[in-house]
Structure formats: structure tokens, C-alpha cells
TrEMBL record:
Highest taxon of source: Eukaryota
GO biological process, one term: calcium ion-regulated exocytosis of neurotransmitter
One GO CC annotation: dense core granule
Family annotation (SUPFAM superfamilies): C2 domain (Calcium/lipid-binding domain, CaLB) (SSF49562)
One Gene Ontology MF term: clathrin binding
Family designation: Belongs to the synaptotagmin family.
Protein name in the entry: SYT11 protein
Domain C2: 124-250, 259-390
Keyword Zinc-finger among UniProt keywords: no
Coiled-coil regions, chain positions: none
Amino acid sequence: EEQDTIQKSSVMLDLHSSRMPFSNTWKYGILALAILFLLVALIILTCQVCQLQKCNRTRKKKRCHSRGWIRMKAVNGIWGKKMPPLLHDATKQSNADIKASTLMLGRTEDFSSTSSDLGLLPRSRGTLKFSLLYCRERCELLLTGLEAWGLPSRGCTESAVRVRLLRHIPSHIPGLQCMVQEWKSQVVKNCCRPAFGDHFVFSLQDAEVEKSTLKLEVQRFDKYSRNAVLGEVRVTLSELKASQSLVLCKELQKTTKDIVGEVLVSLKCLPISQRIEVGLLKAKTTSPRSTAEKNVYARIDVSCRHHREKHQKSRPRAHTPLIIFNETFLFHMPEPPAWDCTVLISIYEVDSNSRHLIGQATLGKRRASEAADHWGLMIKSIQQPVAKWHPLLV
């Protein structure tokens, strides 16, 4: 039995020893195959990265070459050779003729330096078409046929036109005007060429025609109910002839504000309590648009670091050419080194049914020169009120 056991164990050892080299061969073969696959994958990845870098370099060269070719054509001519002085002068003259003809077509917008060098036209804000008729017998100005096209498209939007009739007033304030009447057209939704289909009638005497200007603003409303002014068109009514209909088609220009009065505001810095005192003293406005007695009030908004404080309102006052408020309002402010705030003063005329904006004045560190000077004087004169007149704009 012992011999049988020894023989069986020897047989088992022989079988085990015969299997060991076979399994090691498989293991090393699989390992070598995995290393080979890894090397192939790394080679493919390296080739792809090199090809991508080569494509990027080619695109950059093409872009630089195209820009240089456009610049070379604009300066030296089509064939890349420098033009003679006579031809160069003729080219300049032809460009001037193109600009003059563009102005005759109603494109009064200034050309930028880049577009003038390359001979490109500026981007249009859109075009507004309307007709005007002044009836001297009825002393009325009729505005009809409002239509716009070429407006910048930004998805589903709503468009409208605000019409204002302004009249120049002689005053010590340069450019002072009064708003005679204001209208707003109906809102047109989701239309690339809106036709508003409204007609407006303005009561206007002959003596007032020479001093009046018609201002039309095209506004756009998006789905968040934000009001954006796309551009404006101004028409001096002195160009109109009585009893003759005038059809105008003008491109929209950049909107500008009009001075309709001025307001006397005092500012006082209170760094210990981290507050600012806004004093609303007086306001000079034009005469009311109607003979009925109306009241006005002022609203003060203060925003700092993109955070708006709760607004405050003044008591209602009678609408006269000189409105006396004599009220002060306190607003919380951050630490003095971080004072980068804006104060907005809006004066409204209230009626039984609605309110009407008379004008607004904005004060702050980053505003116009006068407003910035007033803000700087306030910071220097701690706990001392500093008063200054500011124009009311609309």
C-alpha cells in the first residue's frame, strides 16, 4: 500500500509539473498581447493629436492670410501693388461719393473707422416709415402709416412705437424743451415687419410749428417684459408744408435724451451711521400740458453694488413751473471706501387714472461730469450737505 501511495503521488507530481509550463505560457502571451494593444492605442492617440494641431495651425494661417489680403486690397488695391497717387485720390473721392449718396438715402449714422477703411456700411438698426400731414385750417398734425422693418431679431418679441411732440423753449438752460404730447402705438407681436396701423392727431398752432420736433422711438419687449429702445427718428416740423402729405422713410438712429427741466438736489455723507441723506429741494419744469390742475411727486431710487434699496416717495405737490419740495430721505449705504452707488430721481405727473414721467436725473460716481463732481464733493464734505442743480432728462 505504501508503494501504491508513493506511485500515485509521483504520478500527480508529474502531471502538475507538466501543466505548469503550459499555464505560464498563456499568462505571458496574454500580457504581451495587452502591452501590444496599449502601444497601438498610444500611437493612434499621438497621431490624432498631431493632426488636430496641424489643422488648427492651418486655420490660423488662412485667417491671418484672409485678413491681410483684405487689408492689402483696401490699402494697396486689388492686385497687391501700391496704386499711383492719382488713382489713390480717385478712390478716396469715389468713397466720399458713396458716403454722400448714403447720407442722401437717409443713412445719417456716422461711419466707424474700421468700416470706413474697408468700405463697409455700418450695421443698421432698422428703418421706420410714416407719413405726416399738417392741416393749417384745423391746426392739426396727422401722423399715419407707421411701419418698421430691418429690426434686429431676437426671438419672439413685441414691438411698439412711442411718439413724442417736443417744443423748444428759450431759457438759460441750453437745449430746454417741453413735451407737448405723448402717444404710444399698439403692440405688434412676432412680426419681422410690423405695421402698427395707428394714426395720431396733434393740436399745433402755426407759430409752434417752427419750434417743434417730432420724436419717434421704436421699442421692443421680450418675454421677460423688459423694455429696450432700438432707435429713434427725429423730424423737424419746420420742413413741413401746409396741406401736403409727406412720406418719410428713415433709418433708426441711436437714442438721445432731451432736457425738460432741472432739479436742485443736496447730498450729505454720514459715514458713522453708514447712511446717505438725499435732499430734494426744488424742481424747474415746463408748464403743464393741460390747463387742469395736476399734482406731481418725486421718487428716489438708490442702488449700490447691484443691490437696490427700497425706494421712497415725496409728498404730492402742485404742478407749477417751480416746484418746492424741501424734503430729505435717508438711505443705508456700505462702507465709504466701497461707495459706488447711483441715485435716480424721477418726477411724475399724476392724474386721476394714470401717471406720466416728466423727467429723470441720475447722480453717482460713474455718471456724467456734473453728477460725478457732485458725488465727489459729497464724499469730501463729510456730514455737510452739498446742493447742486442737475438736468431733468426724458
